Amino acid sequence: MKKRKAALVLAGGGARGVAHIGAIEELESQGFEITSVAGTSMGALVGGVYASGHLEPFKEWMRALDKYKVFSLVDFALSTEGLVKGDRVMEAMKELVPDMEIEQMPVPFTAVAADLLTGSEVVLDKGGLYDAIRASISIPSVFRPVHREGQVLVDGGTVNPLPLNRVKRAEGDLLIAVDVSARFGANPAQRANASLNYYKVLIASSQIMQQRITQLMSRLYKPDIMVEMPADSFGMFEFYHSDEIIEAGREATRAALERWTGDKNGMVLAESEEKIATARF
Fold first, then answer.
1. Which of 147, 171, 228, 266 has minimal Cβ neighbours within 10 Å of its Cβ?
2. Coil, helix or strand at residue 83
3. Structure pTM?
């Protein structure tokens, strides 16, 4: 059976980004060949690890994380730029996944960051893998920004949370997106009863901004398949729920793919005038 080629785009979302592992595994199990990957923030991290050919050891490492191990990876910074240095988690990952030049990786890969000085989107598709990942995951006020070549780089979610226009395309491929910061799933009345604090207000505000940008980008660059996970399904730092999050990504992807049907010319989408299949977990 001929594999269906897919250009894969992965959004940021903190711990919810672990769902990308389940999404990738489900796509491959259903006969898709992922020919290129683009990602923002946690999407850049998982996408970069996959593109380097080391997803399996990374998956097992994530599954082994508990609350204590997650906390042990936090290296607090004595800096006004951010609470966390981010060096410790990068070093831990390098023990599992060796650093390499993006141009030499088996699958084309692109990460996205933003320059605080100019407000510009910065496309990272060359150079060291970890340099690109570290810049893309630099959540403002959490991780220290990356200072590089006159730029101050922060999380790409501030400009392009789902970089549909940055993935490298091939003739006849499908554009598949996995958005793990999609519209909130809980009833607004239920959310209204939840207690708020500075952190929750900051995170929710950022999520709303990213959701709006993603909606606009999806209209400009319509994906063939959109897999969605609500932004309130798991907390930003709940990496100790990795098993559950991976399975959530797998189930949401399976549901989206079930809306597709094959025809003699390849794959066509059923029941959607805009040619977007969406599954909300």
1. 171
2. strand
3. 0.88
